[in-house]
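Annotated sample (chain length 468).
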Amino acid sequence: MEFRTSGLFLSVLLVALTGCVSSPEKLGLAYQGETRATDVQFLVDETWVDTNDVRHVDQEIFDSIYEMIDDAEQFVLIDLFLMNEWGFEPGPCMRPLGVELTDKLLEKRKISPEVEIIFITDPVNTMYGSLESPQFSALTNAGVQVVYTDLDKLRDSNPGYSKPWRLLGKPFGVGPGRTLKNPMGEGRVSMRSMLKMLNFKANHRKVIVTEKSLLLTSANPHSASSAHRNVALKVNAGMAMACEMEAAVLEFSGAEGAAASLPAVVEADTPPKGNKVELLSEIRIKEKVLSLLKNAEPGARVDLCMFYMSEKEVIKAFGEAENRGVDVRIIMDPSKDSFGRTKSGVPNRQSAAKLVKAGIPLRWADTHGEQCHVKMLYAENPDGTATLLLGSCNYTRRNLDNFNCEANLALTASPDDAALVRARATFDRWWNNEPNRIYTADYETYQDGSWWRKFSAWWGESTGMNIF
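Output written by the structure step:
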């Protein structure tokens, strides 16, 4: 009996320390689907300063999302990472996006109660159970199905912390408390919630789908982020794929009923002349990035604009493409602005040093309190087509290697396609700047040779003990 008790204890301890999380494929993650679309729109939110250092914005993404909600006749399915008012200060160039989206959905419930609305989000919006979200409470009270992603089901990106946490922290649960200041804004939170946060897990997707259209973006309805630079693709196909992809998150988050309530989306036969659209999640995004870089031939054009970049295999692939004679250009956020606080530049400045050493021209987004939150890759292919890949996914280990929930769209078409022409023109505008519009700065502006920050970037990427 004593032996059996000891064996049971050791088994429980082993499971707690090694983890019992299902593989991404068993959870329905690592999704890949393909269709064709005849109407694809490339949308841009951009911020710049003029020669007098006055900041300006020009935005399209959330206005397009609001139109999708207005036009929906059957359902609205949303999966958005960050929606709250923490840290928001009204002023020029700022919008209360969280309030706007909430009001739009409440209006839709009132005008069209027959339309099913499901909103998937991340527990970060309640600081992991410590704070009530006024926006999501209002939506729930109006009959919107709000589903918080069960992050415990995701793989451990920070295993050195998550394994002992499952044994020593998880059994105590989460809940309200006032022990610590909310690190993201107003209010105070419990120690238990802070300990859960340090697992660094997230449903980081930004997906909006109705029976009529599908939109993927890098933008969050986070009011303090409303001046960020972002991009999106909106298509008139792929809605059934998106519902299938999101149903997996609903199911492993304990919302099987919400998944079952999604209407069956019947999409019209796609004309054979439609352009190829791929819906990709998690590691399938990484596979697509590496394939695009591997297949780029000498003289081809590859442009990247990225918020966070640190994944070693991807950085190496960019360097190899440049060495083969591919015309690579990269714009990167300097990792200096974070809602009124100044960041250290890790990991982007250290990754940039490697890319520049490989001979790649690189410019920094010229940020003034906002962030260049874009995650966009454009690559011309040897067969005379081009591919635009964008969505929620940063090029880091946590985002690319089946840890976070992520989702991107890839559009492959002729370089003359209107969406691709606009994407190229947008990148060129950012790269070259314009009279009285400054978007980017020279690499030397934020060049960083600190050995300590270089070690910090390597350590954070290798161990998962980081926020990127």
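Annotation: The domain at 35-261 is CATH 3.30.870.10 (Endonuclease; Chain A).
Annotation: Residues 81 and 204 are 5 Å apart (CA to CA).
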